[in-house]
Amino acid sequence: MAKTPLGRFVWHEVMTSDVEGAKRFYAQVVGWKTEPWGTDGSYTVWMSPTGPVGGCMALPEQLAGSPPFWLTYIGTPNVDDTIAKAKQLGGAVVKGPIDLPGAGRFAVMHDPDGAVFCLFTGAGPDQTNLGEPRLGEFSWHELATTSPEGALAFYGSLVGWEKAGDFDMGPDGIYHMFGFQGIPMGGIYTRPAHAPGSYWLPYAKVADVDAAAARALAAGGASVVAPMEVPGGDRITMMTDPQGAMFALHAAGARPAA
Known about the structure:
8-stranded mixed beta sheet, single chain, 16 strands, 17% helix, alpha+beta, 2,3-Dihydroxybiphenyl 1,2-Dioxygenase, domain 1
C-alpha cells in the first residue's frame, strides 16, 4: 500500500453555510457531480470525470458566523511527525490530529502567518495525479501572505517544496512560484492590504474560464478578479460563490475564439 506522498495537494474542501446551495452552484460552474460519504450523508464528495477531488460540508458550530471558505489539504506519510515539525517551524495546530475511519488521519493547521491548511495521511493507496491536471481537478494553488519569503522557507522545510521561478507583478510585488520535483504547483505573493488575513486559494480546472465565470455570475456568484490571461497564455478568474467562499478557475491556453 503506497503511503501518501509528502508535499502533494491531495484534497480540497469547502465549508459553507448552505450545503445544498453550494452543491448546485459548483455543479453548474465546474461540472462536478456529488456523492455522499459515510452513512449519515453529512459530508458530500465532489466527483470529477476522473474521480473524487474534494468535499463539501456545513460550517462547524465553533465556526458559526465565520464566512464560508475553501480548505486545502497537503499530503504527508505521517501527520503526527509533520505536525511536530510544523510546530518547530512556527506553525500551530488548530484542530486534531483526527482519525477518519477508512479514510486516513488529518489535522487543521495554520502557518506562521496565520494561513489555514490541513495535513493529511490517507488510509489507502495514493491516487495523486502527477501529470497534467485534468478538467475538474485542482490545477494551481496560491498563498497570499504578508511574508512570501518566510512562507517559502516554512513550506520548503515542512513538505519539501522548491522554488520554481519568480514573476515581477510591478507594484503588486514578486510572484514566487513553487513546485515539487520539477512540477510547478502554485505561487506565493504578498497579500492585498484589504485582505482580512493570509489565505490559500485553490484553482479548479475548466475548459473555458470565461464561460464558467458567466455561469457563476448567473448562479449568484460574484467576481473578484475578472477573467484574464496570465503569462504563458492560460486564463484565470477569481470569484466568490453565493455563500461568500472565494475560489478560482483556470483554463489552459488562450481564450477560445468567439
